Amino acid sequence: MNHFYELRPVMSAEDWRRLHEIRRTVLFRPGRQSVAYDENHPDDRAADNVPYLLHLDDRRIGVVRLDFRGEIAIVRLVAIAADEQGKGHGRQLDALVATEAKRRGVKSLHVNAAPEAVGYYEKMGWKRAGWDPDELTGIARNCTQMTKQMDG
């Protein structure tokens, strides 16, 4: 069976509900973060930041936010729903993020990769590279900074 993946900006109240649910249960599950999850964090609604949902057919299975900074985009709060992990959806999400970034004129992606995600990013072609030490605070304090150049 062929599946259809699509990366769509968060628009509806139901989209926001699902985004928060995935973030809360995957990224902010008990014991993972020292900070509480804030559904109303202003960064989600900042002008150049776009939260997205990864759709698989008719289901919302993943989340990511892209913070656009000209020719650079910062990839944030990446997660696949717990019951969908390990099925290759992250690879699809990474490819769709790259496509969206290129479409918007981005030349380089940056991420603060959680320790358990560094291997995933390396498999997707990301390279370890410090890009802003001031970013490594709060939930990113133990992260590894990585970059990915957009081809053509």
From TrEMBL:
Report the superkingdom from the record.
Answer: Bacteria
Xref: SUPFAM superfamilies: Acyl-CoA N-acyltransferases (Nat)
Give a yes or no for keyword Transferase in this entry: yes
Residue span, N-acetyltransferase domain: 5-151
Q: Does the keyword RNA-binding apply?
A: no
Q: Which InterPro entries match?
A: Acyl_CoA_acyltransferase, GNAT_dom
**Sample GO molecular function, one term:** acyltransferase activity, transferring groups other than amino-acyl groups
Q: Which UniProt keywords apply?
A: Transferase
What is the official name of this protein in its record?
Acetyltransferase (GNAT) family protein
Source organism: Phyllobacterium leguminum
